[in-house]
Design brief:
Layout (H helix, E strand, L loop, with lengths): L5 H12 L5 H8 L3 H13 L19 E9 L4 H13 L3 E6 L6 E7 L2 H12 L5 E8 L10
Antiparallel strand pairs: 1-3, 1-4, 2-3
Length: 150
Amino acid sequence: MTELDAINSRILSALELDGRISNTDLAAQVGLSPSACLRRVQELERSGWIKGYRAVLDRSRLGAGLTVFVMVGLSAHLSKDARAFERAMEAAPQVRECHNITGAVEYLLRVEVADLPAYKDFHADILGVLPQVRSITSHISLGSPKDKRA
């Protein structure tokens, strides 16, 4: 496994801010030659420090102007119920993230839909029909002053 030394840390920080930075600019920023920088980036990719690159899209322009964080409690604490719920969330395009969490409920979802009527449909027709679901608590996002997801 690749060691996370100071230079590799700077490379990761720079790539996290701008995954499209050129290798030449990245090398200059972290104080390496372009060839040495490229070798380090490739090794960070191979060893799993860098999982991938992606575009950050304007979700509202894609018709997903409403973000809702949903806390879901399951009716039973059996692994088959958790797996069934997770499969259902994987199949629901509105669910952008599904996190198994600790606390009073089992799951935290980040749901993106066009508007409140679309969320009502998701709530009733997807979450509301799952036999594993005991409780649903919705929190509508009013804005995201800080969002570091890429």
